[in-house]
Design brief:
The protein has about 375 residues and is α/β, with parallel strands linked by helices. It has 15 helices and twelve strands. The chain has two domains: about 140 residues, Aspartate Aminotransferase, domain 1, CATH 3.90.1150; about 230 residues, Type I PLP-dependent aspartate aminotransferase-like (Major domain) (Aspartate Aminotransferase, domain 2). The strands form three sheets. A seven-stranded mixed β-sheet has the order 2-8-7-6-5-3-4, with helices on both faces. Helix 4 packs parallel to helix 11, helix 5 packs parallel to helix 6 and helix 5 crosses helix 10. This is N-succinyldiaminopimelate aminotransferase.
C-alpha cells in the first residue's frame, strides 16, 4: 500500500495528459504538436561517432562521473559560451539527461518540510522530484497574458523554510527568457536568504531575436551556491540519448553524484564520446539549428494567426502558447481533447503545468520543432476550425 501511495503522489497531471494526447494522436492520425522533441536528428557526424563507439566496444560501465573527455568538453563549453570556469574532475558530473540531474538535486538537498521556490507553470518533473524528496513547492507565477516575472511575488515567496530555488530559463512551457533584471533579483534574494539555486538551462542555445541566455551563476555571490543543469538532448536534437550534466561547486556536485549512483549508476557509455565531440566541434551546427528553429517559430506563429489564434511569440525553447478563447473555448483541456477529432491536430493544455489551474486554463502549448511540411499540414488542418 505504501508504494502505491507514493506512486499516486508523484503521478502528475502532465504525465496523464501527455499519455492521453499521444494515444489520441495515434487513434485519430493527428499531426502531433504536443510532444516536445524534434522530428529530425542531430548532426550526422555526431551520430556516426556513437555508432563508432559501439563498434569499438565502448559498451560497458563508464566512470561514475562520466568519461574524462566529456567532462572536459562540458567545462570547455561553459568557458567558451558563458565565461564560467569549472574543474572537470570535481565540479561536473554526467547524468542520464537533465531529468536525472534535477531529481538527484532535489533528493540530495531537499528534506521533508523544506520549501522549494520555482517558476510556475512548472516543467512536469519538478513537482514529482520535490514530492519524492518530501519538500513543498512554492510557485511564483509566470502567468499570462505576458508571462513575465513579478518581483514582488518572488520576494514574498521566500520564508525561513526556503531551502532551494529552482530556476528554468529559457522557460518551458512559456518560452520566456529571464532578463538580467529578473536574474539580478533572484540572485539578490538567494544571497540574502542564503539558499541553494538549481538552474535548468537545457534550452540555453535555443534563444531568438534579441533575447540572451545569461547563467544565474555569473551574478555576484551565485557561483558558489548554484548548480547548473543542461543536456545534449535539446542542443543537439538527440533527446533519446539522455546525456546531461550538472556543473557547480565540488561539494554540491559530490552530493548530487552520491544520489545519482543509486538512480542510474552511470549514463550511456557509447553516447558520451559522441556528445563530447559535439560540444567541442558543434557550435556552427547549433547556431544553424537555432536559426532554423526561429524560422519554424515564425512559420507556426503566422499559421496560428491565420486561424484566429494570437500566439505569444516565445523568446526561447521550441514551444509556443496561445489563448484558445477566440475559438470559443475557455478551457484548454477541453480544446485539446476536441482538437484531434475536429481537425486532426494535437497540442498540450497549459493548466496541467500549474498548481493554480485557473491561471493556465485558457492556454495551450504548441511545439514547433517539426519539419516545415508538418507545421504547414497542421495549420492546414487547423483551418477547419473556422471553416
Amino acid at each position: 500500500m505504501a508504494s502505491a501511495w507514493k506512486a499516486e503522489r508523484v503521478r502528475s497531471a502532465t504525465t496523464t495528459i501527455f499519455a492521453e494526447m499521444s494515444a489520441l494522436a495515434v487513434a485519430t492520425g493527428s499531426v502531433n504538436l504536443g510532444q516536445g522533441f524534434p522530428d529530425t536528428d542531430g548532426p550526422d557526424w555526431m551520430l556516426g561517432a556513437a555508432r563508432q563507439a559501439i563498434a569499438d566496444g565502448v559498451n560497458q560501465y563508464p566512470p561514475g562521473r562520466g568519461i574524462a573527455p566529456l567532462r572536459q568538453a562540458v567545462v570547455d563549453h561553459s568557458r567558451r559560451h558563458h565565461g564560467l570556469e569549472y574543474d572537470p574532475d570535481t565540479e561536473v558530473v554526467i547524468t542520464t539527461g537533465a531529468t536525472e540531474a534535477l531529481a538527484a538535486a532535489m533528493l540530495a538537498f531537499v528534506d521533508p518540510g523544506d520549501e522549494v521556490v520555482a517558476l510556475e507553470p512548472f516543467y512536469d518533473s519538478y513537482a514529482a522530484s520535490i514530492d519524492l524528496a518530501g519538500g513543498t513547492r512554492v510557485g511564483v507565477g509566470l502567468f499570462g497574458p505576458d508571462f513575465r516575472l513579478d518581483h514582488a511575488e518572488l520576494a514574498a515567496a521566500f520564508t525561513d523554510r526556503t531551502k532551494l530555488v529552482l530556476v528554468n530559463s529559457p522557460h518551458n512551457p512559456t518560452g520566456t527568457v529571464l532578463g538580467r533584471d529578473d536574474l539580478a533579483e533572484i540572485a539578490r534574494l538567494a544571497v540574502a536568504h542564503d539558499v541553494l539555486v538549481v538552474c535548468d538551462e537545457v534550452y540555453e542555445h535555443l534563444v531568438f531575436d534579441d533575447a540572451e541566455h545569461v547563467p544565474l551563476a555569473t551574478f555576484p555571490g551565485m557561483r558558489e551556491r548554484t548548480l547548473r543543469i543542461s543536456s545534449s538532448g535539446k542542443t543537439f536534437s538527440a533527446t533519446g540519448w539522455k546525456i546531461g550534466w550538472a556543473l557547480g561547486p565540488a561539494e554540491l556536485v559530490t552530493e548530487l553524484t552520491a544520489v545519482k549512483q543509486f538512480l542510474t549508476y552511470v549514463s550511456g557509455a557509447p553516447f558520451q564520446p559522441a556528445v563530447a565531440r559535439a560540444l567541442d566541434e558543434g557550435d556552427a551546427w547549433v547556431e544553424a539549428n537555432r536559426v532554423s528553429l526561429q524560422g519554424k517559430r515564425d512559420r507556426l506563429a503566422a499559421g496560428l494567426r491565420s486561424v484566429g489564434l494570437d500566439p505569444v511569440v516565445p523568446q526561447g525553447t521550441y514551444f509556443m502558447t496561445t489563448d484558445v478563447r477566440p475559438l470559443g473555448y475557455d478551457d484548454g483541456v477541453a480544446f485539446c481533447r476536441d482538437l484531434p477529432h475536429r481537425c486532426g491536430v494535437v497540442a498540450i493544455p497549459h493548466q496541467v503545468f500549474y498548481d493554480d489551474v485557473e491561471a493556465g486554463r485558457p492556454y495551450v502549448r504548441w511545439a514547433f520543432c517539426k519539419e516545415d511540411a508538418v507545421l504547414d499540414e497542421a495549420v492546414r488542418r487547423l483551418g477547419g476550425l473556422t471553416a
